[in-house]
Amino acid sequence: MGKILTIHGGVPLKGTVRVGGAKNLVPKAMVASLLGNTPSVLRNVPEIKDVSVVRSLLELHGVNVTQDPQTGDLTMDPTDAKSASNRAIDAHAGDSRIPILFCGPLIHSLGQAFIPDLGGCRIGDRPIDFHLDVLREFGAVVHKGEDGIRISAPQGLSGAKLDLPYPSVGTTEQVLLSAVRARGVTEVRNAAIEPEILDLIALLQKMGAIISVHRDRIIRIQGVDELQGYDHTALPDRNEAASWASAALVTKGDIFVEDAQQRDLTAFLHVYRQIGGEFEVKHNGIRFYHPGGELNPLILETDVHPGFMTDWQQPLVVALTQASGVSVIHETVYENRFGFTEALQRMGATVQVHVDCLGSTPCRFGHRNFKHSAVVMGPVDLRGTDVDIPDLRGGFSHLIAALAAEGTSTVTGIEIINRGYEHFTEKLISLGANVELHEAGVKVGS
Ligand SMILES: CC(=O)N[C@H]1[C@@H](OP(=O)(O)OP(=O)(O)OC[C@H]2O[C@@H](n3ccc(=O)[nH]c3=O)[C@H](O)[C@@H]2O)O[C@H](CO)[C@@H](O)[C@@H]1O
Ligand SMILES: C=C(OP(=O)(O)O)C(=O)O
Prior knowledge:
Number of strands: 24
CATH superfamily of the largest domain: Enolpyruvate transferase domain
Enzyme class: transferase
Subcellular location: Cytoplasm
Distance between the termini: 19 Å
Largest sheet: 5 strands, mixed
Number of helices: 13
Bound molecules: uridine-diphosphate-N-acetylglucosamine, phosphoenolpyruvate
Keywords: Cell cycle, Cell division, Cell shape, Cell wall biogenesis/degradation, Cytoplasm, Peptidoglycan synthesis, Pyruvate, Transferase
Organism: Glutamicibacter creatinolyticus
Strand content: 15-25%
EC number: 2.5.1.7
């Protein structure tokens, strides 16, 4: 039986939380360790589900993974890498999106890869066509089976000239992790340039990779025969930081987010200030707080970096339910990221979702049946209710709405939160939240 979180709302969250290493970098950095011929050391590793899934997959492939009990730093030694049985790999079907990134490294070290069905948040169809297309351009052969995808490269991987249909984060990572040891030069146009991608490039550069980043989203990679292990400290999780910032605004609180980095949050901070949230950038983090008074509504579009990150959208929508007036949000990255607003409406929020592109940039989802724009009217008084967490950020949004609401909420599916927020309940309690966690009828923390 899963855990149940009971939330007694109405308490402003106040105090300090430290964000861990980025969920959207750390598991990929772990995959990169397979490319080296000596051990890699990864620091600032969060205790989240994707890390344990990738650790298990690395171990199945013969990588010796050890963790420092004090610091949590991971050492990954790939010198005895070996093929794993499809059946063992398939036990991780549906757990995470990261397995698709094993393709290049496994082909380089073992000649082939088997990829189980992917997991991740259900916020759209999330196809992997771009990934498979670029792998084919590198010379890989893709066999789609009932249980997963088998990829081989009888002639090895060769550099390619690529132009992505969209600056996909995962596909850009696929290109990097495949091209660094491919024969010859790769050039990728329309690449993603998110901070986590640049951190992955930094780490690959430490391994000996030859990579240059150019203007207009162009990345060039000169393949090399061998790479060494790396010693790298993961960048802090900007999405966790933005989530806590929204929590401060929604609960009328004051949260110091230790290790939050301004340079990775510029677009978020700009919007936060427009709404009427206050922040103070310090040498070791950022303080986020509600200054009192009314919040302002706004018009917002999510976009690829350096735009407003889609993973910030869901928690911020809760803050917009507290703004005085009408806000319009156009989600241009995922076609189905407003499902979470149904529970917000049950809590008293006024949110309408539309299939039209309600923004200045017509997106890939316009004139199709995707409810990818939202109109939010505020301010409203939120009231507690029962919620079942649908996905990572939608779940965080429900939790902060419940924390701000009048009355009690009962939350199931809380395990999903562990995909992106380490020690979540402990952090909430340290911020003064009035919550109780029950497991199979037993209270385990309050
Ligand atoms: C583990 C991880 O890092 N997850 C992040 C990563 O996801 P992920 O790497 O999956 O996201 P992508 O940037 O690839 O996806 C962006 C868009 O491209 C589409 N697409 C992508 C690949 C493909 O083969 N075909 C295709 O159509 C997707 O459906 C989506 O609509 O970047 C997203 C966008 O910043 C973030 O929200 C996720 O938190
Ligand atoms: C969409 C997200 O993650 P994933 O790509 O791992 O599903 C997220 O972190 O909000």
